[in-house]
Amino acid sequence: MEWLVIIVTVVVLWVASLFKILHESLSASQVAVLNDGGVFCKRNVLLVIAHPDDESMFFTPTINYLASRGCNLHILCMSTGNADGMGNVRKEELYLASVMLKVPQKQVKILDHPDLQDGFGKSWNSKLLSKIIKEEIANCDIDLVVTFDNYGVSGHCNHCDIHQGVRKLLQDASHREVEAWELVSTTILRKYSGPVDIWLSILSAKFHLRGVVHCLLNEHPRRSLAAMAQHKSQWVWFRKLFVCFSSYTYVNCLKKIN
Fold it and tell me: What does the pLDDT read at residue 222?
């Protein structure tokens, strides 16, 4: 009987959370509810990721939210994800996923730099990353950068290196006018709680100083699945489960990098 109560409670929370996301996506007062204060409206945004599929696995709530706020979004992917020798395939998959996410293909840049190759234990130089990001900011007239935090959601070294590269950029006095925001990594329990985590994310954002952390709900959860499905080389059973049960499919918390 106790197990039945637990199961029913989880199902009710799951359904209620999905309803909350749907309600917010249809509500004209969403900006006020999430309290972004207009920070993310009509900006030239650069999303900096490490590998093809990072955008679909971790950042779709951010991408959908920014698109709906009239932002001009660019994606800079630092590698082709060639750890298994499938770099050319994965590169094309990212272009297909970007179509699903309403990001023009011409605004998706994928690098294949010899010093920025995919793989655990392959450290990327922060000065090199900073230089590349700086060039992209200048070329695309970027005023806001979004990337991983210092843990990088999964702890992947390339994700963490990207964060350090952005920090290195911000240390440059000439780029202090560029805002940078990081995707907040959560505990493993929250990470796999699916849409239920939206409640903790909203509370977390509200208890931080105004303008420091914003909680962005995914206005189009199905788009996350459709985008990730374009990465056919990576679309194996455990990643299908990840996208369904990951909180990052349903909500992103972005924290300003100071």
Answer: 86
Q: How far apart are CA 36 and CA 58, in angstroms?
A: 20
CA torsion 116→117→119→120, rounded to 10°? -30
User: Which residues is 255 bridged to in the sheet?
Assistant: 182, 213
Q: What is the rounded CA–CA span in Å between residue 228 and residue 216?
A: 19
Q: Phi and psi for 147 in degrees, rounded to 5? A: -155, -170
Give pLDDT, residue 131: 96
Asked whether 14 and 53 are in contact (CB, 8 A), the reply is: no
Map residue 36 onto helix, strand or coil.
coil
Positions in the chain whose pLDDT score sits under 70: 1-38, 173-176, 208-211
Contact 184, 255 (CB under 8 A): yes
Length of the chain: 258
- Cα separation of 8 and 4, whole Å? 6
pLDDT of res. 28:
37
Q: What is the pLDDT of residue 84?
A: 86
Could you give the CA distance from residue 25 to residue 88 in angstroms, rounded to a whole number? 36
Owner of token pair 């990840």: 242
Q: What pLDDT does residue 210 have?
A: 57
The CA distances from residue 146 to 3, 98, 167, 236, in Å, are 42, 16, 12, 27
Distance CA 139, CA 141 (A): 6
Domains of the chain: 40-256 (3.40.50.10320)
Please tell me what DSSP assigns to residue 236.
-
Closest by Cα among 243, 225, 58, 226 to 153? 58
